[in-house]
Write a structure and sequence with these properties.
Strand content: 15-25%
Largest sheet: 3 strands, antiparallel
Strand order of the largest sheet: 3-4-5
Radius of gyration: 32 Å
Shape: rod-shaped
Order of helices and strands: HEEEEE
Distance between the termini: 111 Å
Oligomer: single chain
Number of strands: 5
């Protein structure tokens, strides 16, 4: 009987010394705050300020406010209508 108990203890000994690695239950979220508050439009990983115009193929894009009623909201690219031309009369 002692031999059986000894064999069982020897079989379980490696399990008692096993290294347990646990991950945290809640992930840690890191935010780069350097770009917060910048009002820019991005194209090909480059930042463009408000009023910037890009030509992409035959199309022109302008960086301007996402919503007309906001004065400090997000910016986005809008298609620049080439048919609209300003004339001074």
């Amino acid at each position: 009987m002692n031999k059986i108990i000894t064999l069982c203890l020897l079989a379980l000994a490696p399990l008692a010394h096993a290294k347990i690695i646990a991950t945290p239950s809640k992930p840690i979220v890191a935010v780069d705050g350097s770009s917060i508050g910048k009002r820019v439009c991005y194209y090909q990983d480059q930042a463009y300020s408000i009023g910037s115009i890009l030509q992409i193929g035959d199309h022109y894009l302008i960086c301007k406010e996402q919503n007309d009623f906001e004065t400090n909201g997000a910016l986005m690219w809008h298609q620049l209508d080439s048919n609209k031309q300003t004339t001074n009369n």
